[in-house]
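User:
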Amino acid sequence: MLTINPADVLIAPAKLVNRLPILEADDANRVFNYFDAQTISWVKFAYPDGLDSEENYTISRSDGTFLISSDGFCVMCAADPLKSWVFEPSVGKFKHPEMACGRFKDLPNEGYWTVIDDKSAGISRLCSTETGEVTAPIPSSNGSCSFDVDKPAVVSPNKQWILVFCGDTDFAAYSYEIATKTFRYLGSSKNGVSVYVEVVKWLDEDNAIIYAYPPWNPPSNTYYVVNVSKLGDLEEAASDLYIAPFYYDDPPHLEWMPCEFGNCGRKGNENHYGLERYDFKTRTHIQYPYLDRIWGVGSVIPDGSGDRLYRSLNYDNRLDMWTAPSATLIRYNYETKQVIDLYTGEIEWFNSFSPDGRYVVLFIGHNKTVAANALLYENQANYKPDGQSTIQVFDLQTQKVVYTAVGESWDTSEFAPIGVQWITANQLLIFQDGKYDDLVVTFGNQITEKPIDLTAFNDSPDRQRLIVKDQNGNLAVYEVASGNTIPIISRESLEKYSMVIHWNSNTDFDLRISNKDHEDIQFASWRVEVP
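Assistant: Predicted structure:
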């Protein structure tokens, strides 16, 4: 196997922090090639007896060992220890893995609780994949809680409680108190469609928000709140045919428009509905009055004002109420009742706000028709305008369009190729702009454009360092704050090898270097720092 010299790849100031171990299977010669990061050398180990698959799967583990399986790794599949091995590089030994809950036993502090079934006895139990501990039977009325992917068991933040859900299209919720080894029945769903159930958030050590939904239409999204220490405390927060309650995290609450198909308060309907809100902490429900021209959840402008932005359709006299020739941006506050018309145009939808809420990105159509879909949020609709994909940046302070960008031509069978991402309060990253491949636009007294060539690599966690190609073909870091481009990986090495970057922090990343023609053959794994 090839050993790569970091000096042939990295350009200062990028520097190697340390090499990481690698285990590569060579089925043709029935050996594992192990890269020892301490000796900086490759060592060969013969396959253990019984490993005869033509394709082997390996997972590196936090204790420095590797888990190997000829069957692959499947959460829902029964694991076979006789077709799997743990490789310990420090001693060069292979052994079959220990088992827990019918799966490979997890390392300390890395396990989770899952459900195991005894279908012949009609009972289910909780089991720890770390210790192998098994609880008493879950007191489920239907005897099966085995949908552990659709309805996973979830541990509370203080690790004192486990939430588990039993059943299929209706579920019963139970909590398990680990210290007392006691189950509590919390309540059941009754809408017959909650196939998937997940915990959205723990409000504190005892209270949790639950989201339940089916994999089919109509969606019938349902939210619950529950105190896991109290019997029968499961409370439904919102559930209805076709409504799509939107969850806001700060503070934790839902907002939605009551909606029956084709009857969501649009022009011409007899029944008009206003915005509804449910507060998870206080368990209170509020319904606001219906407002002409304003319907849907809208989007809260993140500037601290509490104002919302709506896209109100300007219907003509046609019978088709799903489309209109234009739309108006409306700013509205439910507490002050102030309505401000901001801008009218062929606004298909608004994409995103700048972090401080001053700017909003609008997607603009070109066929003198804007689409409407009462079943989706105004800011989530998957609209597909004809012709060019155009964005406008609207300044909510000056109430003016301050920037326009046009992407490549596209037809209605595709989603807009032009994309955007805010990287600071006044800097917008635009993908596939018509003039340049990618562009950083800075807003202020003067608007500036900085063309860049983004790669498919991940950006730093704070989005202040973007991986780009520089004018010489080197891989480089573009620093948003300074506008500087710093070469870090040579063009020559990019032409030789396939590379993948994964940022660990804002200053270091893991670099995986593989065969250019066979990316599954790995040559190096490095921790690299860019000060």
